[in-house]
Each structure stands twice: as C-alpha cells, then as structure tokens.
Amino acid sequence: MARGGRWYGGIATADCCGCNLRCVFCWSGAPRDHPDKIGKFYTPEQVYRAVKSCALRRGYRQMRISGNEPTIGREHLLRILELVESDGLFTFILETNGILIGSDKSYAHELSKFTRVHVRVSIKGTSEEEFSLLTGAMPEQFNLQLQALKNLLDCGVSCHPAVMLSFSDREGYERILHRLADIDASLAREMEEEYVFMYPHVVERLKRSGISPRIAYEPSRIPEELI
Ligand code: SF4
Question: What pLDDT, on the 0 to 100 scale, is given for residue 6?
C-alpha cells in the first residue's frame, strides 16, 4: 500500500484517490477521475501503519499521502496526523492544491494543532487565467490557493508555496512572486518551482487538451534541484 520515493531526500508515500481540480498536466489517471472504481478504503490506522513500516524499513524521516488531493478526506487526514503526532517519529509533508484550506480557515486552524506537519501548497499557474486554463476551474478560485497560504501562516502552520511554471513566461514568474510577497516576504523567498514531467499518460493528456508546456522534463532527465 505504501511506496518509497526519492523526493524530499527520501519519503514514504501512500497514494489516495480523487481531486477537486482537473489539471491538464496531472499524472494521475483513473484514480483521479474515477475514485469510486479504483483501490479500496483503508482506515487512518491502516494507512499510518503501512506508511510507517515503509519509512522505518527505508530509514526515512518523512511521509506523505500523494497521487491526488489528500485534503478531500478531512477527517481521515486529521486522524492520520494525530497518529503521526503521537508517534513523534516523522514529519508529514502535506501536499495540497490548497483549495479547501483557502476556502475554510478552520481547516488551517485544525492543522495548527500538529507540530509535525509541513504544508506544501502547489499553485497551478501564475494568474487567474492560467489557473483556469490549466485546471478547468473558475478563474476566481486561483485566489483560494493564495488564501490557503495566508490562512496557514495566520494559524502558525509551517508551509511553503510550489508554483507550476511550465506554462508561464517571465512576466508570470515575476507576477506570482509579487503576489506571494504581498502575503508574506517569506513565501516569495521560499517559492519552489514546479515543472511538468512528461510521463506517457501526461503527454497524452496534454495532447488532448491542446496546451503545450514551455518547459517540461523527461522523467529520466529530471534535474537534481527539482527532486
Ligand atoms: S491538483 Fe494535483 S492531483 Fe489534482 S488534478 Fe491537479 S495535478 Fe492532479
């Protein structure tokens, strides 16, 4: 159920199903679009046990739930974070698109009860228009991702932004840096650059959407600094 991975210098990962966005560069296939038909339900205790065992076997200090959008199962996720907290052995990297945390500050408040969680908010594009083009969501929802970072900082939750820059020009890069700095200077300083990796099904999905990345990497040639 859990797998190892080289990201973050080594992290144990469980994969979840379902997302509230429809990114054209998403690497998740059926688990995103048909979560009701894929996989099976595991309790928070079962998930934590599997990820912990994977982490201990490989000597990792970090764990995550990835593959889709882990914040969708709020109660389930919070219970896993309780288990992480009470064990005190690992840091949980919460990778999220931020939409739910941006739309409900109480989510950030609940996350603030945990000392062993770091949130990575992955922002899709550098403007309302890019966001909508890339995700299929309404342009104004772009702000929910920025609001997520604001809510997390307000509640004292460790976090940083990652920005999908594959489809943006220099102007977009500067624009998002300014918008992040308007929330807090640390967010602009810590902004992580994210680019598309051209797995075969991602290439297929991009072809169908008719949208081409300006910068993208073959999976076998991912630069060290993006890992
Ligand atoms: S937010 Fe992540 S999981 Fe959801 S569609 Fe976008 S890339 Fe896929």
Answer: 80
Beta strand 2-3 with 159-164 is: unpaired
Element (DSSP H or E) covering residue 157: none
| Alpha-carbon distances, residue 28 vs 22, 58, 119, 120, 224 (angstroms) | 10, 25, 20, 18, 23
For position 185, what pLDDT does the model report?
98
Per-residue pLDDT, 210: 95
Please give the pLDDT value at position 9.
85
Angle CA 17–19–24, to nearest 5 = 115
Examine residue 206 and state whether it is found in any structural domain, yes or no: yes
pLDDT digits (tens, 9 = 90+) for 31-83: 999 999 998 999 999 999 999 999 999 999 999 999 999 999 999 999 999 99
Domain with 154, as residue range(s), is 2-220
CATH number at residue 67: 3.20.20.70
56 domain residue, yes or no: yes
Identify the segments of the chain with pLDDT beneath 70.
none
What pLDDT is recorded for position 92? 98
Overall residue count recorded for the chain in this entry: 227
Q: Which atom of ligand 1 is nearest to the CA of 21?
A: 5
Ligand 1 near 62 CB (within 6 A): no
Query: Strand, coil or helix: what is 213?
Result: coil
Query: Would you say the CB of residue 99 lies under 6 angstroms from ligand 1?
Result: no
- Identify residue 218 by its one-letter amino acid code: E
Long-range contacts, 200-206 (Cβ 8 Å, 24+):
201/27, 201/29, 202/25, 202/26, 202/27, 205/24, 205/25, 205/26, 206/24, 206/25
Query: Atom of ligand 1 at shortest distance to CA of 97?
Result: 1
